[in-house]
Amino acid sequence: MKEKRIEAIASLENALDEIESGEGLSTFVEGHGLQSRRFRFNWSEPSLLISYDLPTGRVLSPEDDQRSDDAEAGAAIRLAIVLLRAFEQGKPEAFEDGSLSVYCDDDGARYEILADDGSVIDEQEGWSGLASRLECVFENLADDLMIIWP
Q: Residue 95 and residue 52: Cα distance in Å, rounded?
């Protein structure tokens, strides 16, 4: 699992570089045509599930929409990298009460924390609640670490 995690993080970092270069996202992109390409990333382990399905490369859309697509995909990629690193050594203390599932698609971003029996412990639209939990994970790191949330 550790090798897969390292590969996933490297691929996500590559995808982020693609977005930031302005040349267009190609890593984790599925579909074809001018308006039907999708950025899809999925990660599944017992304590962490990440599922992204976002539009990208919609060349017939207005430039503002294209920039918005890139910004949303970039934010999702950054969050996936943070989550994969946070769960590297197992489940962080801030999530000991359940498994974390993070989703981002056409309906927006959301997360849920599920108990072992499948009951919902916490669920929210957006990522602000998740950001608060993750701040606890990283609070013991160097003072110069700054996480900027989408």
A: 21
